[in-house]
Every structure is written in C-alpha cells, then in structure tokens.
Amino acid sequence: MPTMDETTRVTINDFLAQYDTLVIATEHEGQPFVTRAYYVEKPVEAGDTCVTLYGTFIVTSRKLANLRENGRIGLFIGPNQPSAWLEATAHAYALEDEQASARVRERLGQKSPEAAVFIARVPIVAVEIRVDWLRITNLAASPIYTEVTFDTTHTGKEQRV
To answer: Between 160 and 83, where is the model more confident?
Structure first.
C-alpha cells in the first residue's frame, strides 16, 4: 500500500482540521441519499496508508441503515461557498464496541462543542470511515490538486480510535 509523503500528510491534516462536518452520500436499492454529519479525523502520521475519519449517526437514521447494508460511501468536506474542498470515496463501519464508540463521542465533542450537544441529546452509533480515494481541490494553492488513492481491500474493522 502507498504511504503519503510529508507534504501530502500536512495538506490533508490541515484541511481536515478546519471543518467539523461532512456531507455523506449513501444509497439504498439504487436510490442515493445525502446528508451532513459531524466528524473527527485521526491525524495522518508518517507511515499511515489511509485516512480515517469517525462520525456518529442517529440509531434510527437512514444513513446508518444504508451504510450497514452497503458501506461504500461518498464524502464532501468544505465550506458552503467552495473555494477549497475535499471529495472522497470510502468504506464506513459501525463501531459496535461501546468503548470505541465512547472514545469517538469524546473526541468529536472535543473538536466540536456543537457536536457534543447534539450527540448528548440523541441515541447514536459511532462509525469509522476509511477513505480509499480523496482529492483536495484548492483554487488558491499550487498545486491546485492533492490526490491520493489507497488500497483498502482488507476490510478488517480495526478499532483504532
């Protein structure tokens, strides 16, 4: 599996740290569904071979049901008026272990006070999102694109929260 160079790692980490919500696309029987969700990233470190995000989804939500049926998802992260954005494909896995779920809730609450309030009010399931392809487009940067593809064919559900 490829590893990322330092410039790519810094670009990805800096970009992900700016935002606390993402747009997630799931599907059910060929029908796409898109919604926003809070997330927290695992900072990409030297030697990492993928990007991992964590989110929480309401237990009764359509997106959680969809990703349990089909973990392949699409992602968008960026501002409302995109001048720089990330688009990605990934696999999402519900974290059934309560300790892993609690760590996600804690980290998410540290990153986003709004997320902490939200997840304290509703029953949630934590989800690990393993990115297999991403591209950051930044119209003000050079180069404009940062693109990485990962081999995520191993579908082990490691819980490295």
So the answer is: 83
* Residues 55/127, Cβ–Cβ less than 8 Å: yes
Mean pLDDT of the chain, nearest integer: 90
Q: In which element (H, E) is residue 113 found?
A: helix 113-121
Is the peptide bond between 113 and the residue preceding it cis, with omega within 30 degrees of 0?
no
How is the chain split into domains, by residue range? 6-149
Distance CA 90, CA 132 (A): 5
Token match 């949630």: residue?
124
Domain 6-149: top CATH class: mainly beta
Q: What whole-number distance in Å separates Cα of residue 11 and Cα of residue 43?
A: 11
Residue 2: predicted pLDDT: 58
Q: Is 13 helix (H, G, I), strand (E, B) or coil?
A: helix
How buried is residue 21: exposed, middle or buried, by Cβ count under 10 Å (0-12/13-18/19+)? middle
Q: Provide the token pair at 72.
A: 């392949």
Helices 98-111 & 113-121 angle (0-180, nearest 10) = 140
Question: What pLDDT digit, counting tens, does each position of 16-55 carry?
Answer: 999 999 999 999 999 999 999 999 999 999 888 889 999 9
| Contact of 61 with 24, CB cutoff 8 Å | no
